[in-house]
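Budget justification note: compute hours in this period were largely spent on complex prediction jobs such as the one shown. Inputs:
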Amino acid sequence: MDDAINGLLRPKGIAIVGASDTPGKIGHTVVKKLIEGGYEDGIYPVNPKADEILGLKVYKSVLDIPGRVDAAAITVPAKFVYDVAKECGEKGVKGLIIITSGFSEVGEVELEEQIVDLAHSYGMRILGPNVVGTLSNTDKLNASFAPFLPLKGSASLVSQSGALLIAMDAITYTRRIGFDKMISIGNMSDLNFADMVNYLDNDDNTKCLTLYIEGLKDGRRFIDESRQASKPIVVLKSGVSEHGAAAAASHTGSLAGATKVYSAAFNQAGVIQATDLNDLFDCTLALSLQPPMRGENLLVITNGGGVGVLATDSAEQANVPLKFAPKDVQEELKLHMPAFGSAKNPVDLTGMADTDWYHDTVNFAFTHDWVDALVVLYCETAMTNPMEIAQSIYKAISETGIKDKPVTVSFVGGERCEEAMQWLVEHDIPAYNAPDLAVKAMGTLHDFARLQEVKGDTSYENKQADSKAAREIIAKVRSDGRTALTEIESKRIFKAYGLPVVSTELATSEDKAIKLAEANGYPVVLKIVSPDILHKSDAGGVKVNLKDEASVRAAYQEILKNAKAYKADADVHGIAVQHMAPWATEIIIGSINDATFGPTVMFGLGGIFVEVLKDVTFRVAPISKAEAAAMLDEIKSSPILDGVRGETARDKAALADVLAKYAFMVADLTDEVKESDANPVLVYEKGNGVMVVDARIILKDK
Ligand code: COA
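Corresponding output:
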């Protein structure tokens, strides 16, 4: 564990530089909150003018403090922060909590960078600037202007929004969801989400990492750290605008909204995505109190048919569909219900269910090997007391001594149910006020187990890749002052990475075109080759299914004429001749170099599937073959690849191989390539492979 970060978040001794005796000032509030929180390792207010603040001795400078000072909370105006940081460095402070605003968030980037450089020269780390501060229940540390420490618990929050952190701090008490740490991350000039994931994964007092993210600074590192983390991470990502999509030059660019790429990255990192703030709390509750759901058998026990049906519906949506319990389980359960109950799944104990029935069925079911997870539902009735039911459920679970199976609960009713659920949460059993939420929470625990498995190895080594040959082609294009590669150049690069392309050669005369057509075999396709004409079909620059010499000659002339009409001064290299590959299922593969995550890879079926339905899926490149195969099954139209309406299945193995090779290519050339795509790619019947018909590469501006 990084000593400087630990010193910052769990300091032994803290200075408040810019402490003030004036109530209402942030420098006053932070001192007050540190005192109120009960921090015991030394609170040192620093202010050149004051002698005493809230009963504490005030120091003129950090350097005057006699004892150990691990962290300094800085609340002086922005223009003084650099000098204050310097004194902190000289004192041997480990970390700065820069509460002050007015840095990169308002364009003052240089000052912020200077402070980071200075801090690093002293081995200090920085939280912020522009933060609310940091809180830790274990250390009774409220080094912030949040009103109080959160309800004690085992989740830890890292928030990019200070205001939201304060709001969530208060919600911990109403929702009864406990946190150990709450860390405001602000401008992330130094410490960012990746650092926090690394730190909290190693923090003994944190069981679940809860993140509110607006935007990541170093997406790749975040993925790497999250992938290595063993604890559950749940993220609420805001800011889902499709920025930049419209301006993108390639098809992939227009499909790759920020949200899709973030979502793909979170998936690859094994991170759970919450849909909104309530969901963030719901997920946190389950993940911080319960183990993952390993296995597929979820049993639901209820006293009401209605909530049972609602739970059954939600189970499908949450990817934990209910199955009937085996005979022996059903027979045992029948002993604890009236004849008109149901022992299938959901197990309906009926409205007559009392504490004993709940206890006995829960106890039996939780112990049984077939049951991988349990959801217990209760509807308030006149004959039962919700608190007693809650206690009997808890007793039944704890008597089993089982710690590696999850349970969630929903009590549907009024105030008495609320109280009972609060009691359950305080006893580490996540409880929700609607059956679908209890089931969804179980789905989250199931997702966590699944994501742990998929986040393993994502590497893919393409030993045949000829990076040197690809870079030579790129160098030549750059020396021409171009960033758009022609189809022929793009295909040569694809080929250098072992991708199967329809061989395409350049003809600069009609006669050469005929020779190439004969060599490749009729029918052929002719296409304009010009870096100034990227959308060849729109320019009338493509002629297909040319079956003989006469049609090739006619097409050759017509393409040249069309190109001239489309763009009179276009730099025409010639006309590409290629054999016309027999038609097959059309797909598209593409990539953009994302500002946050770097090279990505997209896959979808061609035609209307991509144009209208935007049925595509993304990953951050490179990807393993297994991950490529998973992408094929992820799109809604995937059954088409498996063969529908009597068609034979397509060559998915070859397609996954191509996808992995393509992802390897874009990752390998990430310093050069901005966007690329293979569109269309034809996928033949199983065993017959894949063929890239058209390819496009656009280089980064340099
Ligand atoms: N060392 C120690 N104390 C110093 C100092 C120094 N070098 N320079 C100034 N101070 C003292 C001031 O004298 C003052 O104390 P006083 O009340 O006894 O006079 C105190 O530091 C604060 O300075 P002041 O000029 O009164 O500033 P302020 O309290 O009005 O504002 C900030 C300071 C940091 C709060 C303000 O600049 C700011 O950034 N506010 C936004 C913070 C925020 O919202 N962050 C989180 C976003 S989520």
